[in-house]
Amino acid sequence: MDTSGLPEGYNVLLSKVKDRLREAQYTALRAVNKELVGLY
Length: 40
Fold this sequence. Notes:
Elements (H helix, E strand, L loop, with lengths): L9 H30 L1
C-alpha cells in the first residue's frame, strides 16, 4: 500500500485505533459471556 499521501503519524494513529477497537470487542465479549453464564 502506498502511504506517501498520508499525513505523518497516520500509521501510529491507525494502530492505536485498531488496538482500542480490539479492546472494546474483547470487553463486549466478556460482558456477553458473563450474561450467558448468569442465564444458564
